[in-house]
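From the methods appendix. Each design record in this collection lists the tokenized structure first, followed by the designed amino acid sequence. Records were kept in a plain field format so they could be parsed without special tools. The example shown here is representative of the layout used throughout.

RECORD:
FOLD TOKENS (248 positions):
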């Protein structure tokens, strides 16, 4: 795994410290032999499809990194083609602000749309912080929770329109039992700051959870879990509210 610590210094300089190596099983740290390095340089702001991009250029090297600014609290690394970099079921390429700022509501009356899917099911996985609405689906609270391993399977019908869903979760720190919740999903469009955004509204049994979950489609390979006010949520220094597509 790799851990990043990025500091954007005012007005245009940065420092990026990163450590990489094999993770130590049963901990959040590294096994012996991990390597730590540092980059320093300048950063600039740009635009990509009306979204803000931070581009970091290292001093005395050809290294350049670009991050899409999702909001004031969350950045996501872009690849060489300026697409969101895809992680896996364990790790994502999302950076989370250490001291998140309070954001105003991003919620609007989003409208349902019909959008066909290319396959009969799509699978997304990720590790997420202990978010109460996720745990409420299995009647649990955040007590004793270390993180939540998530697997979402979204099915479409014969017309390739959204139909049912399965959500598998394991709450690490409370026994490791795998739990299944089922429901349905619909596609809607629009938040206050991005009227063209595509949202996956996940609807579960109301007896299990009073709050439906909403995933924002970053692209075909990445989804972001939004909070109750339709904002991107910052994770922590170990995991994010990012889901990566497993079956392409």
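DESIGN:
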């Amino acid at each position: 795994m790799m851990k990043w610590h990025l500091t954007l210094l005012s007005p245009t300089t940065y420092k990026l410290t990163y450590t990489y190596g094999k993770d130590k099983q049963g901990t959040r740290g590294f096994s012996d032999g991990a390597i730590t390095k540092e980059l320093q340089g300048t950063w600039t702001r740009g635009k990509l499809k009306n979204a803000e991009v931070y581009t970091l250029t290292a001093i005395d090297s050809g290294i350049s990194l670009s991050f899409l600014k999702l909001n004031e609290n969350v950045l996501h690394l872009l690849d060489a083609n300026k697409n969101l970099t895809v992680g896996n079921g364990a790790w994502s390429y999302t950076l989370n602000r250490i001291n998140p700022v309070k954001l105003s509501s991003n919620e609007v009356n989003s409208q349902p749309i019909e959008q066909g899917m290319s396959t009969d099911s799509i699978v997304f996985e990720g590790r997420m912080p202990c978010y109460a609405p996720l745990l409420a689906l299995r009647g649990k609270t955040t007590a004793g929770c270390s993180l939540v391993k998530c697997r979402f399977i979204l099915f479409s019908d014969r017309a390739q329109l959204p139909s049912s869903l399965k959500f598998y979760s394991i709450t690490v720190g409370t026994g490791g039992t795998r739990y299944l919740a089922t429901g349905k999903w619909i596609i809607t469009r629009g938040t206050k700051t991005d009227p063209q955004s595509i949202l996956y509204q996940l609807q579960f049994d109301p007896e299990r959870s009073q709050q439906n979950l909403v995933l924002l489609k970053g692209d075909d390979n990445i989804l972001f879990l939004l909070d109750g006010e339709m904002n991107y949520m910052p994770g922590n220094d170990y995991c994010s509210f990012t889901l990566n597509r497993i079956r392409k």
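APPENDIX NOTE: The longest helix spans residues 132-136.
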